[in-house]
């Protein structure tokens, strides 16, 4: 259930990023390109991004742990941008999916996606039940 919520939040965040034309982030939907196909494409891209982030992102974070310490965590912006770029590369191989104009705009887009994920994650996170007094 948590993965599905994460994918929906990621899809929403990617959609918001595509609305900012300066970033050069575009989603090419499945054919014929109607609204339903765009939503399904966003969900597919978000699922691939979640998988890339959880599998490859974890490996990169473990290997680059000394860099995280040296840069006080600022390297995470570059890592997240790389993971978003990798997702764009994977999905563009299918003829649909994410397209990023340049790596650095991808880093900015990844920062925006992270902010949106943090906000919605805090709102939708299940709260622990408090004991009644």
Could you explain the architecture of this structure?
This protein is mostly helical and 133 residues long. It contains 5 helices and 2 strands; from the N terminus they run H-E-H-H-H-E-H. It has helices at residues 2-18, 35-63, 65-70, 75-92, 103-124; strands spanning 25-28, 97-100. A two-stranded antiparallel sheet has the order 1-2. Helix 4 (75-92) packs across helix 5 (103-124). It is globular, with a radius of gyration of 16 Å.
How many angstroms does the end-to-end distance come to? Answer: 31 Å
Q: Round the mean pLDDT to the nearest integer and report it.
A: 89
Percent strand: 5-15%
Q: Over the alpha carbons, how many angstroms does the gyration radius reach?
A: 16 Å
Shape: globular
Strand order of the largest sheet: 1-2
Counted by DSSP, the helix tally is 5
What percent of residues adopt helix (DSSP H or I)? Answer: 55-70%
Describe the largest sheet.
2 strands, antiparallel
Task: Give the low-confidence spans.
Answer: none
Q: Provide the succession of SSEs.
A: HEHHHEH
Tally of strands:
2
Which class best fits the helix and strand makeup?
mainly alpha
Summarize the topology:
Blueprint: H1 2-18, E1 25-28, H2 35-63, H3 65-70, H4 75-92, E2 97-100, H5 103-124
Antiparallel strand pairs: 1-2
Relevant terms:
globular; 5 helices; two-stranded antiparallel ribbon; 2 strands; mainly alpha; 133 residues
